[in-house]
Amino acid sequence: MHLPLQDYQRFGRQMILDAIGLPGQIKMREAAVVVVGAGGLGCPALQYMGAAGIGRIGIIDHDRVELSNLQRQILHNEKTLGMYKAESAAEALKRIDSGLKIDVMTVAICAENALELLRPYDIILDCTDNMPTRYLLSDAAVALGKPLVSGAAQKLEGQLSVFNLGPNGPCYRCLYPKPPPRDAVGSCEELGILGAVTGVIGNLQAVETIKIILGQHDSTPSLLLYSAFGFPPFRTVKLRQRKADCPACSNPAENSFSITNTDYVQFCGGVSPNWVEAGLVAGIAGHRIRAKELQELLSSNVPLKVIDVRPRTEYEICQLPGSENVPLKDLLTQPEKYILANSDQDIYVVCRLGNDSQLAADALRRIGSGATVRDVVGGLRAWSKNVDPEFPIY
Q1: Strand partners, 30
Q2: For residue range 227-278, what is the model confidence (pLDDT) as tens digits?
Q3: N or C: which terminus of the chain has fewer CB atoms within 10 Å of its end residue's CB?
Q4: 3-class SS at 242?
């Protein structure tokens, strides 16, 4: 057993560890790992697996790099804006180790291509951020008989688990037989994310993958929970073994479960709403106005009231002069508190994209006062686009 001469120096610091040694380094060199999602979780996982010397790495991601990604997706940079994330990540890994074998796949993984794309690899990493793909990757891992290292992160929290590891290792469906309601699932764009949280979980995914390659994983099913501002920050929950009635993994060789016949999007409640487009819908005549119309009203000194229904934290980032902050939850709880009966002062409601403002305006109109209540189409993002280009977009 031997390595190229330069690898002894490159990987020497980890090869002297008892858990790795020369045999372990060769195992990593011969391993093939695929990462689905080159974003907040995928970037740190890829970076450390590539640096550790894993011989073949597949990257599957059809999204392109955007400015908002750079806060947490550490393999991308300003020069790769607009590039496919898979290509950008591959370039970054090649700068770490030019000898890495990297398979770049700029396609959307789906039920029709998942098995073909994942089959050449020993271990699958789920670094995605949507429920349909999570279920798909778990089912594909079971069908292919491969372990799935699954990570998730949102706001200040993250979680990590390894599925389908060992003869009794549970799959994702064992833990979550049914997906949560569609309206209960948010995204990083809606809820926010601390970049370092994705770094913690992504790095731990790399560690779990290396343990599996080295044969050092004890295969105990567990769910690691991480809370960045919690104490203690880490908590481990022991999971049960494979469920006897799981449709995917209870007896994959004999059951009738089919990946290609499963509509994962519908199973998870349908297509995710496009909140930007939804906020731009004109709505009922007289109920909504454009950002420029609101600007004209504000300039005319007509008596009016502007209510901003974003959370207080977002309101502190940026706001229209003279607006009042009433978070949506507070307004919906007591709408009568924020409207005066028989008032001649019209009310205009704004939010980030023009969706929450519609809910708030409807609640205020139901009070039945004399005030006219309208909300702004497209919200503050439309204000920035059509009125004040210096107004921040976040």
Answers
A1: none
A2: 999 999 999 999 999 999 999 998 766 666 789 999 999 999 888 888 889 8
A3: N
A4: coil
C-alpha closest to that of 41 among 200, 209, 213? 200
Q: Which residues participate in the annotated binding site for Zn(2+)? A: 171, 174, 246, 249
β-strands 222-227, 324-325: how paired? unpaired
CA distance 108 to 263: 15
pLDDT above 90 for 175:
yes
Indicate which residues carry an active-site annotation.
188, 351
Strand bridging mode 101-105 / 32-36 = unpaired
Angle subtended by helix axes 85-96 and 42-52, to nearest 10: 30
In this structure, the number of other CB atoms found within 10 A of the CB of residue 252 comes to: 17
Output the known binding site for ATP: 40, 61, 68-72, 85, 129-130
What is d(CA 61, CA 197) in angstroms, rounded to the nearest whole number?
21
**Cβ atoms < 10 Å from Cβ of 231:** 5
Residue 232 token pair: 């203690």
